[in-house]
Every structure is written in structure tokens, then in C-alpha cells.
Design a protein that fits this description.
279 residues; alpha/beta; Elongation Factor Tu (Ef-tu), domain 3; Rossmann fold; 2 domains; 7-stranded antiparallel beta sheet; 8 helices; 32% strand
């Protein structure tokens, strides 16, 4: 059992939890993830490690409520425990001095980009962070990202806080303004990463995307997380989770992510129905 030490709702439907996991905290690196189960009958889901404290022995996870498991996870509080937590998994982000690195994150991806932006900054890069949300009230960690970035751009879809644009538009504007970008690292929803990759490809900017495809075991055994990259089948859990965004077959990935959509909807409806019946 893995004890939840702290919990916070960052914005509606996006939560932060600190989980006691000494062995994971000792080894975690930027870009890696863990697989958790809420209870002994729960499904296994991958969640990116947003931060860690090696001395105190805990990791920080930020997640969004999107289905049955994440809604059940959101009901837990400090003092409760997760049934299992496995990690750190995945290949850590390749960090070196590239020059100017643009880290982009939307929604829950804002948290996932934090350790990468920090590591890139520590390696001597100029770090430009770009975060995105549909509206101002869905933004979080602006001040935290400012501390690990040379520049921070905020974009919102409705113009309620900053520029009324999306991440690919902001990346294009940086280039149009004369900025030289050596690397883009993207975190967030698949559609945003797809559009970002399509924006940077004709500009010749190397782009790394963080893929959170469907996983079960997380060790390359089940094949559920397979993605097509450069015409080859790769496993997001052991070959990733980061890949060249210009080589990913986005249509195949989007299709595979919708593969269990009906079952996921049914599961959520049944669980919500049981919750209502108890009130």
C-alpha cells in the first residue's frame, strides 16, 4: 500500500497527490511515469511523475478526472492509500545542452513538463515554456514554471487571461518574431501534440512528444501501448514515452485511443450510477 501524504485540487477536475514511495522517489527522472491501481480490483493506469523528493521519499502526481479510475482516485484524500504503484517506468527524457528548448504543456501536461523544463534549465539551455488551457480558471503552476524558465507564455482558448490562441500558434509566433528554437518538447492531449508537430515539421524544428497511450503492464509484455513511429511498431512503455513527433502516425494513435471508448463510457456510467444510489 502506498500512502497519500497530501492532496490538492489545482483547478476543477485536475488534482495533485503526494504519494509515499521511497524506492520510486530515489530513482525517478524527468519524463518517467508510474502505473497505479486504486484498489485490488482497479485497472492499471499510467501517470507521469510531476515531481519527487528523494530525501522525504515521496513523488508528486497530477491527474485529470476523465474516466472511472481517475474519478475514483479523486475521491481519495491524505491518509488514504493506493493499492499498488509501480515505477519509475519509461526511458527518461534525454537532457543535454541543445540551445533554446521550448517546453509546451496543455491541461494536465502542464505538470508533466515541469521536471523536464527544470532539467533542461539546469543543463544550461534557454528554456521557453508555453502553457495552454481553455480558460483562465484552468491554468495552474504559472509561478512555478517561471522559476525554471527564461520565458513563460500563457495561451487560453477564450482570451480570458492572455492571448486567445493555442500552443501551435504561440510556437509559430516565437519563430516569426525571430526566435531560434532548437528543440520542442510537448506534453498534453494527443490532438495538441499532433498539431504542434505539424507546425514544427515544415520549420525543421526537432519535436519530442510525450505519449500516454493505453497501457496495462507497462513493461512491454501486453502490447496495448503500441504506436507506429517512423513506420515501425514501438511500445510507449519501454521504447518511450517520448518519441519524435514528426515520425508518429497520429491517425493510428488517435484510432487506438478510441478503441475502448464505448466500454469506458459504460464503465463510468455504471460507477456513477452506483455512487448516486448510495447518496
Amino acid at each position: 500500500m502506498y500512502k497519500i501524504l497530501a492532496k490538492e485540487e489545482l483547478v476543477p477536475n485536475i488534482h495533485l497527490i503526494d504519494v509515499e514511495a521511497h524506492a520510486v522517489a530515489e530513482k525517478a527522472q524527468a519524463g518517467q511515469f508510474v502505473i497505479i491501481t486504486v484498489d485490488e480490483k482497479g485497472e492499471r493506469i499510467p501517470l507521469t511523475v510531476a515531481d519527487w523528493d528523494r530525501e522525504k521519499g515521496f513523488i508528486t502526481i497530477v491527474f485529470m478526472e476523465v474516466g472511472t479510475t481517475t474519478q475514483r482516485l479523486a475521491l481519495l484524500n491524505a491518509g488514504d492509500s493506493l493499492f499498488s504503484l509501480v515505477g519509475p517506468l519509461g526511458i527518461p527524457t534525454h537532457v543535454e545542452k541543445f540551445g533554446t528548448v521550448v517546453c509546451v504543456g496543455g491541461c494536465y501536461g502542464i505538470a508533466a513538463m515541469m521536471p523536464i523544463a527544470r532539467a533542461m534549465k539546469e543543463a544550461g539551455n534557454k528554456v521557453i515554456s508555453v502553457i495552454e488551457a481553455r480558460s483562465k480558471y484552468l491554468l495552474f503552476w504559472e509561478e512555478e514554471l517561471k522559476r525554471v524558465s527564461d520565458q513563460l507564455f500563457v495561451t487560453v482558448g477564450d482570451g480570458s487571461h492572455a492571448a486567445e490562441r493555442w500552443i501551435p500558434d504561440q510556437v509559430k509566433q516565437i519563430v516569426d518574431s525571430g526566435g531560434k528554437i532548437d528543440l520542442v518538447v510537448a506534453f498534453g492531449c494527443t490532438f495538441m501534440m499532433k498539431l504542434t508537430s505539424e507546425t514544427t515539421k515544415p520549420l525543421g524544428i526537432k519535436t519530442v512528444v510525450h505519449l500516454s497511450s493505453i497501457m496495462v503492464d507497462g513493461t512491454g509484455m501486453c502490447g496495448c501501448c503500441r504506436v507506429s513511429v517512423g513506420g515501425e511498431t514501438r511500445f510507449a512503455c519501454v521504447d518511450g514515452p517520448e518519441f519524435d513527433g514528426h515520425e508518429v502516425d497520429w491517425d493510428v494513435l488517435l484510432s487506438r485511443q478510441r478503441g475502448y471508448q464505448d466500454e469506458e463510457i459504460q464503465s463510468l456510467q455504471e460507477w456513477e450510477s452506483r455512487q448516486w444510489s448510495r447518496t
